[in-house]
Amino acid sequence: MKLVHGIDELRSLRAEWQAAGERVALVPTMGNLHAGHLSLVEQVRPVADRTVVSIFVNPLQFAPGEDFERYPRTLTEDMAQLEPLAPDVVFAPSVEAMYPRGYPIATNVVVNGLVERFCGEFRAGHFVGAATVVTILLNLVRPDVAIFGEKDYQQLLVFRTMARELHMPVEILSGPTVREDNGLAMSSRNRYLSAEERDRAAMLRRELLAAARALKRGVRDFRALETAARAHLVTAGFEPQYFDIVAPDLGPALPEDDDFVILAAAVLGAARLIDNIRLDDPALDA
Ligand code: PAF
Predict the structure, then answer these.
(1) DSSP code of 100?
(2) Is 234 helix (H, G, I), strand (E, B) or coil?
(3) pLDDT in tens, 194-237
C-alpha cells in the first residue's frame, strides 16, 4: 500500500499498470473512513488488479457555512484501517495539487435535473462540487470501475448520469449502506453526535422502514406517509429537511408504481443525517 500525494507519481503508476494491461478500481472518499468505506474497497478488489482509494476533503462540495474546516482529517488512522485490505495506492492530494490556481475553478460539472432538489436544495453547490471533483479524480486515475455508497443515493445517480452522458470509460458500481447495530447509516459525520443523539438518530431508519412497509402493504397516500414521518422526527428533536417518496430515478412517485425510493435528510444536534430505503431492502422482510 503506497501513499501518494502527487499527481505526477499517480500518473506514472497508472502508466505502469496500463502497460501491464491491468484493470484499475477507484474508491473515492473524503477520508475519516468507517466500515462503509472499507466494504466498498472489499467489493472492488475481486473486479480489478489494482485498487486506488482516494482521500480528499473537497472544498468545492461544501456549501458556505458548512463543516469544511472541521471535517475530520484522519489520514494516519485511515491508513491503519486500510492496511489489512491492502489497496495498491492511497491517493491523498493536497488542495493545492488538485486546484493549483485556487478554487472555485472555472469548470463545473452540472447534472441538470438531478441536483436541484433534496440535498441540492439544502446544500448550495454541493453536487456541482462533488461531480466536478469526481470528474477530476476519474481523469487522473482513469479507472475501469469506480464505486460509491448507496447511502448517498442522489449523489450516486448524479455520478451515473454524468459518466453515461459524458461517455466516461468507467463502470460505476455501488455498495450497500453499512449500518450501526441500531440501524443508523454509517457516516463520517456521525462523530458530531453525542452518545444519546447516536441512539436517537436511529429513528430516521425506523421512519424509513415504517413508510416502506406501508408502501409494500399497498398504501399510496404518499403525502400522508411523508407528513407523518416528518412529524415524528420533529417530535423526537430532529429538524427534517426532506422525507420524500419518489421513483427510483427521482421522478414523481405514481400510485400505480410498485418501485420507489424514500429519501430522507434531517439535522440532529450538530450532524446532518441522510438515509434512504428501497422496497427490496432485506430488513423489510425481517
Ligand atoms: O461521497 C463522498 O465522500 C464524496 O462526495 C466523494 C464522492 C468522495 C467526492 O468528494
Answers:
(1) T
(2) helix
(3) 999 999 999 999 999 999 999 999 999 999 999 999 999 999 99
User: How many Å apart are CA 282 and CA 154, to the nearest integer?
Assistant: 21
Residues 247 and 119 in one domain: no
Active site residues: 37
pLDDT digits (tens, 9 = 90+) for 140-160: 999 999 999 999 999 999 999
Task: Kindly give, in sequence order, each residue whose CB lies less than 8 Å from that of residue 195, ignoring residues fewer than 6 positions away.
Answer: none
Residues 259, 256: Cα–Cα separation, whole Å: 10
Q: Are residues 212 and 113 in the same domain?
A: no
Atom of ligand 1 nearest to the CA of 28: 8
Cβ-based neighbours of 218, under 8 Å, separated by 6 or more: none
Tell me how far the alpha carbon of residue 169 lies from the centroid of ligand 1, in angstroms: 19
Task: Judge if the beta carbon of residue 60 lies within 6 A of ligand 1.
Answer: no
CA of 11 to the centre of ligand 1 (A): 21
Element (H, E) at 91: strand 89-91
- Global pTM? 0.97
- Cβ 134 under 6 angstroms from ligand 1: yes
| Whether residues 127 and 225 fall in one domain | no
User: Is residue 180 situated within a structural domain?
Assistant: no
Total structural domains within the chain: 2
Integer Cα distance of 114 and 5 in angstroms = 32
Residue 147 near ligand 1, beta carbon < 6 Å: no
